[in-house]
Amino acid sequence: MIKRICLVLCIVFFQSQAQDKSKASYTLDVNNFYGTILKHNPDISHLITGHPSGVILSFQKKTFGDEEWQRLYNKPDYGISFIYNDLDNRYLGEHYSIYTHYNFYFLKRHLMLRLGQGIAYVTKPYDEDSNFRNIAHGSHLTSATYFLLNFKKENILKGLGIQTGLGLVHYSNGNAKAPNKSTNTLFFNAGVTYDLDQDNPEYIEKEKGLVKGSEPLGYGFLFRSGVNESDVVGSGQFPFYTLGAFIDKRLNKKSALQLGTELFLSKALKRFIDFRATGAFNDGTTGDEDAKRVGLYLGHELRVSKVSLLTQYGYYIYYPYDFEGQTYVRAGLRYYFTKNILGEFTVRAHAAKAEAMEFTIGYRL
């Protein structure tokens, strides 16, 4: 599964490089950060004992509007970044993570929003003998997401600039292995930037009406899979399968709305039902309950070239066994290999509780 995440990240980054044929102009930045772990779940209270700190190193390529998608998004940067994070807790240890990211600009390019998705290595994951208190991270490898909202001033002196602001980094293995309460670190950061090529071309302005481009309804089919484990530690990792169909309406060159339905087949949920039935929990579980679920969802797709950011809200219309709640959310990335063939990496969750990391292949008519 982790190899698949790495493959998705490499495809997104190198395909972006291949698409951008404009003059190369690169920047570096180094940021120190200091923050606190948010108590999104009371179960992790014993893990919030200090103030996480670390460093963010990033390398990115500028765009100047040579391609349409660059002008649509005010000439963003894209690149790779590395984060070292000491969570300042004896049970959580340190995290080392690598990401692909985009920098989006506002307010005459003084305000930067960075979105990064990657993979992290956890030095002290849960261990039933030596580290049973770390219920946040059940595996050495986990997915990682981070955001920065920074004031940025470039090229103040011979390519050097500054940036400062707030950030958030999230670590979760999507319940691929229990336990997985996850952590969210909110932090303040400050650092320096360096422009490797100070002789940059002029930015090409976005022409009026560029975002227009609605399309008729589209139709598609999806197959999602992966492995996950229930919250019962040691219950085992099992594959799951999801079959789906959707219709979408592209409103313009940036946004599309989606309506879909899907059938969930989860062996981990079936194992959990058997566990509840034989464990004398007296909750009415008999073991004969159907582990299948059927969902209906409404979603939004934000397209950036061949990459899309997906957000979806769903409701189980067939829900024979009460597990984590009848509503769910999904967020992640979609990549268009061709006009019709697509792939996705997403996380499906119930409120703040992830159930699965999903790897998807699909076809859109």
What does this structure look like?
- The protein is mainly β.
- The chain is built from three helices and 16 strands.
- It has helices at 2-19, 68-72, 267-278; strands spanning 26-37, 53-61, 77-86, 94-106, 111-122, 141-157, 160-172, 183-195, 218-228, 238-250, 255-266, 293-304, 307-318, 327-336, 341-350, 353-364.
- The strands form two sheets. Strands 1-2-3-4-5-6-7-8 form an eight-stranded antiparallel barrel. It has an eight-stranded antiparallel barrel with strand order 9-10-11-12-13-14-15-16.
- The longest helix is centred in the N-terminal third of the chain and has 18 residues, at 2-19.
- It is flat, with a radius of gyration of 22 Å.
- The two termini are 28 Å apart.
- Residues 1-12 and 16-22 have low confidence and may be disordered.
Break the fold down into its secondary structure elements and pairings.
Blueprint: H1 2-19, E1 26-37, E2 53-61, H2 68-72, E3 77-86, E4 94-106, E5 111-122, E6 141-157, E7 160-172, E8 183-195, E9 218-228, E10 238-250, E11 255-266, H3 267-278, E12 293-304, E13 307-318, E14 327-336, E15 341-350, E16 353-364
Antiparallel strand pairs: 1-2, 1-8, 2-3, 3-4, 4-5, 5-6, 6-7, 7-8, 9-10, 9-16, 10-11, 11-12, 12-13, 13-14, 14-15, 15-16
Which regions have little confidence, pLDDT < 50, spanning 5+ residues? 1-12, 16-22
Any idea what the radius of gyration is?
Answer: 22 Å
Q: What oligomeric state do these chains adopt? A: single chain
Shape: flat
Features:
8-stranded antiparallel barrel, 8-stranded antiparallel beta barrel, 16 strands, flat, disordered N terminus
